[in-house]
Amino acid sequence: MKKMWKDEFLTWNSSLYDGIREISLPLSTLWSPDIVINEFVDVSRSPDLPYVYVNAAGTIKNYKPMQVVSACSLEAYAFPFDTQNCSLTFSSILHTVEDVDLAFWRSREDIKNNKRLFLDDGEWELLSVPSHPRVLHRETGRFAQIQFNVVIRRRPLLYVVSLLIPSLFLMVIDLASFYLPPNCGTRITFKTSVLVGYTVFKVNMSDKLPGTAVSTPLIGVFFTVCMAFLVLSLSKSILLVKFLHLGEDPVRERLFSGCCVGSALDRGSPGERPQAPRLQAAGDIAGPVLHGKEEEGKGEGPWKVTSARKAPVEKILAELLLISSQLRALDWASRLEVNWLTLSYRLDRLLFWVYVLTLGAYAVTLCSLWVVWSAQ
């Protein structure tokens, strides 16, 4: 920090002192203005330079480097696309503006655009340093102040590569998992692995987010919502698998018997309600035939011969009817399974597009908030 002030009691005629126009004196032997930084929060770590320069006109120059730790209110909402404005206010504590007045020794425009002394640490970029002189009115008098606003902008490339892009990759992988068949059991395993991986990623990157209790960074909301989407995707897959296994109870038959899908399976008249074929035991069909055989066996001889010849034919007919009934039942179950699977695929496609539209709307909203905040 460079301070310059004039002391009327430290002037001399250089021609009377062998042309000496400037000397150095210990600062402790001179009066110096009590200029402090209002945002100062820590002990100065500047090197100790006990001497100042005094010229013949009484101008004192104190070129003392100073490392300042100051308080700055960070706006982390738009992290990592944020711009911060930190102020450094120089003022006198004891002396009013009538005693000590503050002024610039360079033009304000030169100070604003001067970036030569900025130490680039790779993360922050200095935009400008505007300054505003003013007079602060207090009960004890008027005090001069000069406020410098250090406007810096964060370079977001590091955080985009290490935080945003991996998160987007995991979300794309989760979307790609919808191309797995809904009746494939590995879909739930795959989505669970993605969710666990995202949880580990979120825990590891939490240290890189700025910690503040005033406002939540938008990127933190982004990670939380992405995890919520992954949980929603996994829940949807679990419900879809449960929907596919509803055939283990009579739900499928009740559903398809009363809807248009069931009528498409019906080969009878359009007005009839389809009924699932039932398996019929061989004894139920052959029973009346055998009973007829016993009734016929009570007759005379010629009739007995005829009944004996008809018995094998009726037995074969009963077996054929049983096989036909079983085939119809299997055909019904197969058609019902195909139609149920088709309905599940349609439901899965519907849920996929709802998921994509919701995720897209959230991404557009998030990008719009980032753009609006960066433009302010």
From TrEMBL:
GO terms for cellular component: postsynaptic membrane. The keyword Transmembrane applies. It catalyses: Na(+)(in) = Na(+)(out); K(+)(in) = K(+)(out); Ca(2+)(in) = Ca(2+)(out). It holds the Pfam family Neur_chan_LBD. Residues 163-245 form the Neurotransmitter-gated ion-channel transmembrane domain. CDD domains: LGIC_TM_5-HT3 (cd19063). It comes from the Eukaryota. It is a multi-pass membrane protein. GO terms for molecular function: extracellular ligand-gated monoatomic ion channel activity; transmembrane signaling receptor activity. The keyword Membrane applies. Keywords: Cell membrane, Disulfide bond, Glycoprotein, Ion channel, Ion transport, Ligand-gated ion channel, Membrane, Postsynaptic cell membrane, Receptor, Signal, Synapse, Transmembrane, Transmembrane helix, Transport. InterPro entries: 5HT3_rcpt (IPR008132), 5HT3_rcpt_A (IPR008133), LGIC_TM_5-HT3 (IPR049944), Neur_chan_lig-bd (IPR006202), Neur_chan_lig-bd_sf (IPR036734), Neur_channel (IPR006201), Neuro-gated_channel_TM_sf (IPR036719), Neuro_actylchol_rec (IPR038050). It is found in: Postsynaptic cell membrane. Residues 1-156 form the Neurotransmitter-gated ion-channel ligand-binding domain. The chain crosses the membrane at residues 157-180, 214-234, 350-373. SUPFAM superfamilies: Neurotransmitter-gated ion-channel transmembrane pore (SSF90112), Nicotinic receptor ligand binding domain-like (SSF63712). Forms serotonin (5-hydroxytryptamine/5-HT3)-activated cation-selective channel complexes, which when activated cause fast, depolarizing responses in neurons. This is 5-hydroxytryptamine receptor 3B. It comes from Mauremys mutica (yellowpond turtle).
